[in-house]
Amino acid sequence: MKDGILMSRSRILDGQRFQEAADAEEMSAFQDYNLKLVTPLVDRFSPFAYAVSDYIHTEVMHHSGSERCYRESLNHCFIVHGLSLFREICEDCVKCKMIRKKFIEASL
To answer: Alpha-carbon distance 26 to 21, whole Å?
Structure first.
């Protein structure tokens, strides 16, 4: 808990794993490489989680799939059960439905 916000330290992208020392988030060596050691923790059913996941799905990752969108969201915040949220958003997305239909037709 920092300033009334729950923070998560459990997930760092692959290739960026290291032992965390005390007060490592203030070290300038990590800031030079744009590494975030702590990210906000968000509940899956909160409106903020829906807003962040929709923004990441449409604007940042351009409808690239639920797993890739979830990995990108871990850079910004940790959503509890976030993968199921991204799967739900991808199933409801009209553009993603068209992309899946073209993929299925091409594979047949």
So the answer is: 10
Counting other chains too, the contacts that 7-12 makes at CB distance below 8 Å and 24 or more residues apart are: 7/38, 7/39, 7/40, 7/41, 8/38, 8/39, 8/40, 8/41, 8/78, 9/37, 9/38, 10/78, 11/39, 11/74, 11/78, 12/37
Record the tokens describing residue 106, joined without a space: 């091409």
Instruction: Measure the CA–CA gap between 104 and 108, rounded to whole angstroms.
Output: 6
In contact, 71 and 37? CB cutoff 8 Å: no
Read off the tokens for 2. 């920092």
pLDDT value, residue 19: 44
Minimum mean pLDDT among 34-43, 68-77, 96-105: which range?
34-43
3-state secondary structure of 39: strand
In terms of C-beta density within 10 A (0-12 exposed, 13-18 middle, 19 or more buried), how is residue 2 classed?
A: exposed
CA dist 64 and 81 (Å) reads 19
